[in-house]
Write a structure and sequence with these properties.
Layout lengths: L4 E6 L6 H12 L3 E3 H10 L6 H20 L4 E4 L5 H13 L3 E8 L2 H10 L12 H6 L10 E4 L4 H14 L3
Parallel strand pairs: 1-3, 1-4, 2-3, 4-5
Helix pairs in contact: 1-7, 2-3, 3-4
């Protein structure tokens, strides 16, 4: 039996995380747990948006991924994970289930990133569209650990191929 993988797709809002995560989930047939749609669903149920709903969305993603890992199955997480507490959560989850933690960070040059943010429309219930000011003010601690860094200005299919190759290299 293969060791399950916990694949974390991280980066600032608008950096291309969800696009990469969705393609990987489809190609690998691995469930994807994305924090923003989870939070949007909570807001649709009538909860008021705040720090607590954002944190709860991370906890729900962690719990759902944990259920997959508990069964020996892999999972993909799509989340900014800009602070150490979020990163520690993913490390602890992988460790608790003897899963291989694979981190893929999406980055983008400032001007292109700004253009993408200004053109993006997600229409998520209860979650306003992200502005460039939101991105610039977002806490995002630089990663210090091993990961694949994808420049999402490159061709999408090339980025997906790089990610798949990286994931295969990490198989135990």
């Amino acid at each position: 039996m293969n060791t399950p993988k916990l694949i974390i797709i991280v980066g600032l809002p608008g950096s291309g995380k969800s696009t990469i995560a969705e393609s990987l989930a489809a190609r690998l047939s691995i469930p994807l747990f994305s924090v923003d749609p989870i939070e949007s669903a909570m807001l649709r149920s009538g909860l008021e948006r705040g720090f607590e709903t954002g944190l709860a969305a991370y906890v729900v993603a962690e719990t759902l991924a944990g259920e997959q890992l508990k069964c020996g199955l892999s999972a993909i997480i799509d989340a900014v994970s800009g602070v150490q507490e979020a990163r520690d959560m993913w490390h602890s989850l992988a460790c608790a289930h003897n899963a291989t933690l694979i981190i893929i960070e999406c980055v983008l040059a400032r001007e292109l990133h700004k253009q993408r943010i200004e053109a993006r429309v997600r229409n998520m219930h209860g979650i306003p569209e992200v502005t460039w000011e939101d991105v610039e003010n977002r806490e995002y601690v630089p990663w210090q650990e091993g990961r694949l860094v994808l420049d999402t200005a490159c061709a999408h299919q090339e980025n997906v191929k790089q990610a798949l190759d990286y994931i295969r290299l990490r198989e135990i």
